[in-house]
Amino acid sequence: MSSTPPSDMKSSKFLHSFWQVNRSLMRYVHKTASENDLSIPQYSALMTIAPHKEMTQKELGEILQMPKSTLSQAIDGLVQADWLHRQPVQDNRREMQLMLTEKGAVLFKKVKLQKGSFHQTIDSAIDTLSEKQFEDLLSTLHHIAEFLENETIIKENSQND
Amino acid sequence: MSSTPPSDMKSSKFLHSFWQVNRSLMRYVHKTASENDLSIPQYSALMTIAPHKEMTQKELGEILQMPKSTLSQAIDGLVQADWLHRQPVQDNRREMQLMLTEKGAVLFKKVKLQKGSFHQTIDSAIDTLSEKQFEDLLSTLHHIAEFLENETIIKENSQND
DNA sequence: ATTGGATAGTTCATTTACGAACAGTCCTTG
DNA sequence: CAAGGACTGTTCGTAAATGAACTATCCAAT
């Protein structure tokens, strides 16, 4: 009894749970973002920049790992709406220095405290896990991520992202 | 020493790993799908129907949990391309009975064995986990999924999905 | 037998993120 | 110091998934 189940069975169970979590997360991000008139990339960008005082667009891209075009458009929208200040870096005019405007800083604080916001929700979800559960989850996810990144797909030094 | 880290720190670590896995998975699904001239919803539908001999569109929707419109369009494409046979259910003409055509069954087998396909890759990723790691991962994901589903978002008995 | 509501699926317009090509800046090397 | 190549970011056309409104069918209640 209790022989190891076939791996395609395990995979599909994993995928099912994984997509389910993903769907919920997406729903929440989308909700919180659109309540504040932001697209998802815009929301991600804003929340990532905020904890640092300033940041280049390049650094932001390395963290968020989204296509350059997507990021560029997101940033542009944020600048237009005056959440974000953007200016070429002093001694390398190719790069863009990004920092929140005062308005942007206010928005960030508001969102962070907003009842039922993405951040609040995900924080409380994580809080229901034991320390050990959390560590295990993180390390397993990390393990899978690494495995997948190293697999076949030739990271054809893509000009995007 | 070793006091519990603040939960928003933990959340962002979790999210980072989670999105990273998600990005990889998406890349693989997209690659495998488009190599076979399928959209992602089409790929998902095909792979879900295949193990059952037949299935109603409603049942499929309950499993995949994607918006009705997305599913409907995916199915329609599969029928057009003759991967899938579709006909109204005998004694409830609102529902649609779906089953693979012979051509579709061949495609399914081909994809399942395809070197570097999504299925192959995710299977081998899962195989690198110990039995315990896998069980823990699954149960934690499941736990988070349930938590998120039960949270605030009023599932305003959406007419979609 | 009729009507109102629920259920299953489709249509269509819109949004969104994306890839590919491009433009500007910087750095090396002859 | 000119030219080629690498790097950062932008523009633009396209494809994909979605929500809202709709059609068709079924069922329950009067």
From TrEMBL, chains A, B:
A Pfam family: MarR_2
InterPro entries linked to this entry: HTH_MarR-typ, Tscrpt_reg_MarR-type_CS, WH-like_DNA-bd_sf, WH_DNA-bd_sf
Molecular function per GO: DNA binding; DNA-binding transcription factor activity
Region forming the signal peptide: none
PROSITE patterns: HTH_MARR_1, HTH_MARR_2
Keywords, ordered alphabetically: DNA-binding, Transcription, Transcription regulation
The HTH marR-type domain, residue ranges: 11-146
Protein name in the entry: Winged helix-turn-helix transcriptional regulator
Organism whose genome encodes this protein: Psychrobacillus vulpis
Species classification: Bacteria, Bacillati, Bacillota, Bacilli, Bacillales
